[in-house]
Amino acid sequence: QKEVEQDPGPLSVPEGAIVSLNCTYSNSAFQYFMWYRQYSRKGPELLMYTYSSGNKEDGRFTAQVDKSSKYISLFIRDSQPSDSATYLCAMKRPGGYQKVTFGIGTKLQVIP
Amino acid sequence: DGGITQSPKYLFRKEGQNVTLSCEQNLNHDAMYWYRQDPGQGLRLIYYSQIVNDFQKGDIAEGYSVSREKKESFPLTVTSAQKNPTAFYLCASQGGGGEATGELFFGEGSRLTVL
After folding, report:
1. What is the pLDDT of residues B41-51, one digit of tens each?
2. Is the pLDDT of residue B52 over 80?
3. Mean of pLDDT over chain B
4. Is the pLDDT of residue B98 over 50?
5. CB B74 within 8 A of CB B52
6. How many angstroms separate the CA atoms of A84 and A92, rounded?
7. A34-72 residue pLDDT tens
8. 3-state class of B74 per DSSP?
9. Which chain B residue shows the shortest CA-CA distance from A52?
């Protein structure tokens, strides 16, 4: 079993839809949770970062962590064609330079 | 502008040749990483370095080598021993020292194709 599971998609939605992207994980030691966005042929860029459980909102993006269920989500409201990209969840244990473990990424396409 | 620069962006190699991918950062970060990205497999860690003159193997180090002679630079050599080198290679750096949260700054990537 992989430490982090993520549905690769692809996921196609119409412009303006609410998008829900999810990951599950098995290692209860993970404390830092991140979402990266990767456009085609580019390097990933950090989109959202949360520590432990709870919600974090940044504009149209909301990151949610449920440690009891080992489940994290990224919600995109009012999705735009420019949101079309691959979204990778990532997580790490606390304590210095611990390895960051990535999901395989979900490819999202927002149709105008 | 602060960031990570990878070169070359595209590289073609004949079987049996070694190639070196460059990674330079001006973020003053201590830690640097090399990942390989393949379709359907996500990002896999090749090597990482937390400090100058020190580096550790990641999950898929076989057939690769690195050096860390300067804080700013972390080149990756793909040797002829790497059985399936065609992939997208990503370099990343991380700051924060003991409080590192996991935020990685990535370069634009290098796409290596073996002919």
Report:
1. 889 999 999 99
2. yes
3. 91
4. no
5. no
6. 26
7. 999 999 989 999 999 888 788 999 999 999 999 999 999
8. coil
9. B101
B37-72 in b/e form (b: 16+ CB < 10 A) is beeeebbebbbbbbeeeebeebebbeebbbebeebb
Q: Is B20 helix (H, G, I), strand (E, B) or coil?
A: strand
Contact A1, A98 (CB under 8 A): no
Would you state the structure tokens that stand for residue A47, as one six-digit string?
């989109």
Using an 8 Å CB-CB cutoff, list chain A residues near B90: 43-44
Q: What is the pLDDT of residue B4?
A: 95
A64-93, pLDDT tens digit by residue?
Answer: 999 999 999 999 999 999 999 999 999 988
If phi over 0 gives left and psi between -120 and 50 gives alpha, with beta otherwise, what is residue B110?
A: beta
Q: Which of B90, B103, B105 sits opposite A34 (nearest CB)?
A: B103
Whole-Å CA distances, A60 to A38, A80, B89:
17, 10, 30
Are residues A43 and B109, on separate chains, in Cβ contact within 8 Å?
yes
Of A36, A16, A77, A98, nearest to B50 (Cα)?
A98
Chain A, residues 34-93, CB within 8 A of chain B, namely 34, 36, 41-46, 49, 51, 88, 90-92
Instruction: Output the pLDDT for position B96.
Output: 66
The edge-to-edge listing of strands for the beta sheet with A54-58 is A4-6, A19-25, A71-76, A61-66, A54-58
